[in-house]
What we know:
By secondary structure, the protein is an alpha+beta fold. The protein has helices spanning 9-12, 33-39, 64-76, 104-109, 111-121, 136-144, 224-228, 233-241, 290-304; strands at 18-20, 26-28, 98-101, 123-128, 148-150, 159-163, 169-170, 177-178, 188-191, 203-210, 219-223, 243-247, 258-262, 264-266, 273-275, 311-312, 322-327, 331-335, 344-351. The chain has a single domain (98-352), classed as Double-stranded beta-helix.
Amino acid sequence: MSLSSQIPRSCLQRLTGYASRSNGFTAVRTASRPMLRLLHESHSPLKTSVASLEQSGLESSFSFQEFTFLQNLVKTSPFFLHPSQPKAEEFNFPLGTTFKAPTREIGLDMKNTFAQALKEYGIIAIELGFDDSKSQFMLEIVEAMGCTPDTHSSTQGALWDVTYRPSGVISEKTGGNVVSISQGLGEFAWHTDGCFEVSPQRYFGLHILHPDKLGGGIFRLLAIDDLVKRLSPASIETLLNYEFELQVPPEFYKGSATTRHKLLSIEPDTGRYLIRYRRDILADPPSDDPIANAAVMELNAVLDGEGSVGQTFSKDIFKENSILLMDNARFLHCRTEIKDPKRFLRRVRFNGTPGGHA
């Protein structure tokens, strides 16, 4: 029996793009915004309880039967990953944002579902069921979603090895080799990727080739909405309006040594807070303005405060041959000190609107 024959007719009239596959499974081909709200247990990734129909932001015309049916559909689909119940300190992925791609073909066929989930929630995880040691699928799915991978520097391409590499990479700025923090063994404090760019890449992806198996290299993320709640209104106002000078790390040099930008902004279409931040490339003090310096000091204090902020990923998410795609402006991320020198991730940074095909 095909999936379409199982869905209530009224539900089919609202949703699009289900197609039965010859192997007996069914992959979601496209998903409208209302569908994505149905697929997830909560509108915010910070919530942990199962949302009611109203809490999911659905129109009242959606019946409870449809709501329950689609939630159960996601829970039983072979193309959705169902991680164990997260611990208190672990990030709780919304229902329908953790996927399985048993083959490259099926993974690419799910591009629209990936794109809608990433656009709506800012984060997805994909468990690969096939070997991809060169991380080509990550590039392919980024492009299939209608986005464009960006180069890391004037000498490095779209893919960047996040692994212990004491020899570093060649920098056009210095003419010699420089070592990025991401290619060392030390801690990497809270930051967003490419925050020194004139226009930072909106998204990034990580292909986990070899997680740290000695207890180090713990990846953490912090939703910007959660961060902003901890800041005073005065600091928020300052960070939204003051431009700070940012130093461009030599390994990511593209022709300019510094840039000036606001650390916080508001996305016009959604009203969401967006951030660019990396403490070690700010001047010390950050500016000549005491008010601006006080705002940065408060921001730093929140990130350094007693009781760690942010959340980790469970081991059934951050595991070998899985891909994480994240909104670089809606989450900060960091990592602890590396204990396993063989830890190996591969990164891509990309721009565009997921699902926004030309």
